[in-house]
Amino acid sequence: MPLGGQEDMGVVKEERQPCGGASQAGRSVGPDPTPPDDLFIREMETGSPLWRLSLGTGSSPTRQPPAADEPPRTIPLLGFSLPAMAPPPSEQPDSAAAAGAGAISRVLIVMAMETEAMPLVNRFNLVEAPARESIFPKGASWTRYYGSHKDLHIDLVMPGKDAVFGVDSVGTVSASLVTYASVEALKPDLIINAGTAGGFKAKGASVGDVFIASDVAFHDRRIPIPVFDMYGVGARKTFAAPNILKELNFKAGKLSTGDSLDMCPQDEEMIVSNDATIKDMEGAAVAYVADIFSTPAIFVKAVTDIVDGDKPTPEEFLNNLISVTARLEVSVTKVLDFISGKRISDL
């Protein structure tokens, strides 16, 4: 789902306020002027568990430690080295490489809104999984459709409708939860996060453009503590799919993700810092989960509205939603046609 600009649905445009409201506006977000005490310094020098965790060097049950002669796999960013997500099978641990050695068989499509998803459900005659076949926790509103296309088994999942308000459960929390449950149960070879997005004309985006995200990051997780600030941004490279870009003539651009439809000054500053061409409300959360499982993920985003344009975002989004969603369906179909019979390394 796209993030809008300065307007909200049916709300008169107002001057943007600092994120967090008036109580936050007066607070300092800079570092504590109090110098660190001896314990903090000793912990940094000796590598306390919290400090090691902050640096991302702690162990994870889903990962294997690198070989002694293998250099760390990192992406440089603002002087820090951050992890790249979902390496191809040839670079993954042996067990993951063995699982991905053959042709892609199972594809998980993660979407946020029913309006975005139903054209694909209808295109591939996907069937909604009955309650007795649910892979999700009891009481969850999450929805799964499944079927096949050529050599691929397809599972399409959505967070579904909120039980209280009856609207699509958009945002990072729902996206990460449904993605985690689906990957854990279905063990897909590839994840496709497909949906609509806002675009920036200053970065070359136009309504109807379809992008493959090259990078993802968050723009509304502000943690003004050294290293934790970088964790909050969560910047990472996505799984590279150069052949998809070349053969299908999609655009490439960086994706920034946040949980608000509007855009306060702090969010805007971070979006610029993230060098984003498009922005949504789910992508970076899906990427985070994909990285936990070392499952390759690609992000197909179709632009419904221009954030830095002269039209109100809600109006432009609603006017373009149907036509752009149809374009998204065509684009995802092309991606599935392309990957059928191919290996991950062929993408």
Automatic annotation (TrEMBL):
Coiled coil regions, renumbered to chain: none
UniProt xrefs under Pfam families: PNP_UDP_1 (PF01048)
Segments of this protein annotated with the region Disordered: 1-71
Protein name: Nucleoside phosphorylase domain-containing protein
Spans through the membrane: none
Residues annotated as domain Nucleoside phosphorylase: 107-335
